[in-house]
């Protein structure tokens, strides 16, 4: 594929991930109350939660402001790296992986930047509504990320004879995540599975150039 077409593919994929992610989030935010669970199947549910952390609700040292600024810098760096890799005629699939990672990170950045400005935070069981700009629940850069996908693939209760976790209910893969998180994860997993040799070569070339 020509470099021009790779640039176009990357831009289209980036925008598609952003649009799909935001459509899902806005519909969940304005259609479900915080904490609501809608069971789709026995192994898949929609659960509306919000978090200040990274993908899958994990927390990051440094607080909310640091996390948001870190994400913005990271997306800018990845965007520059994608442009450079296209110029170097890297494989199309490799570019797609990088674009998924960048788009997923950008999707969560939008929540952090603007959701606090445009949504209210009503008490249970009310659902959120769009507000005039600047009259939401938070300040610029301090919005919360909306998560909704929950896949409790396997659930079980620990044996009662266990000394510490006796009778505790366990769930395999309990994190709740969003479409942007899924894009990041798919991009990273695909890189590791199909392009780990290329990534290693790029790292080695970088070290050689530094020396």
Walk me through this protein's architecture.
By secondary structure, the chain is of the alpha+beta class. The protein has one domain. The protein has helices spanning 3-31, 63-87, 92-118, 179-194, 196-210; strands spanning 37-41, 44-51, 145-150, 154-157, 169-172, 176-177. It contains five helices and six strands, in the order αββααββββαα. Helices cover 53% and strands 14% of the residues. The mean pLDDT is 88. A hairpin with a 2-residue loop joins strand 1 (37-41) and strand 2 (44-51). Strands 1-2-3-6 form a four-stranded antiparallel sheet. A two-stranded antiparallel ribbon has the order 4-5. Helix 3 (92-118) packs antiparallel against helix 4 (179-194).
Note the topology.
Blueprint: H1 3-31, E1 37-41, E2 44-51, H2 63-87, H3 92-118, E3 145-150, E4 154-157, E5 169-172, E6 176-177, H4 179-194, H5 196-210
Antiparallel strand pairs: 1-2, 2-3, 3-6, 4-5
Helix pairs in contact: 1-2, 1-3, 2-3, 3-4
């Amino acid at each position: 594929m020509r470099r021009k077409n790779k640039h176009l593919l990357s831009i289209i994929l980036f925008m598609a991930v952003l649009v799909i992610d935001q459509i899902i989030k806005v519909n969940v935010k304005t259609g479900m109350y915080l904490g609501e669970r809608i069971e789709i199947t026995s192994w898949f549910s929609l659960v509306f939660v919000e978090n200040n952390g990274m993908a899958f609700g994990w927390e990051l040292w440094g607080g909310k402001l640091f996390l948001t600024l870190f994400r913005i810098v990271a997306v800018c760096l990845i965007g520059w790296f994608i442009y450079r890799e296209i110029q170097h005629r890297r494989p199309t699939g490799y570019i797609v992986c990088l674009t998924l990672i960048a788009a997923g990170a950008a999707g969560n950045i939008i929540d952090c930047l603007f959701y606090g400005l445009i949504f209210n935070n009503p008490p249970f069981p009310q659902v959120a509504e769009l507000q005039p700009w600047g009259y939401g629940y938070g300040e610029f850069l301090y919005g919360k990320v909306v998560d909704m996908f929950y896949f409790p693939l396997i659930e079980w209760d620990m044996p009662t004879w266990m000394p510490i976790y006796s009778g505790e209910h366990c769930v395999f893969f309990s994190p709740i995540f969003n479409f942007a998180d899924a894009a990041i994860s798919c991009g990273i997993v695909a890189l590791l599975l199909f392009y780990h040799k290329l990534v290693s070569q790029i790292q080695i070339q970088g070290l050689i150039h530094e020396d």
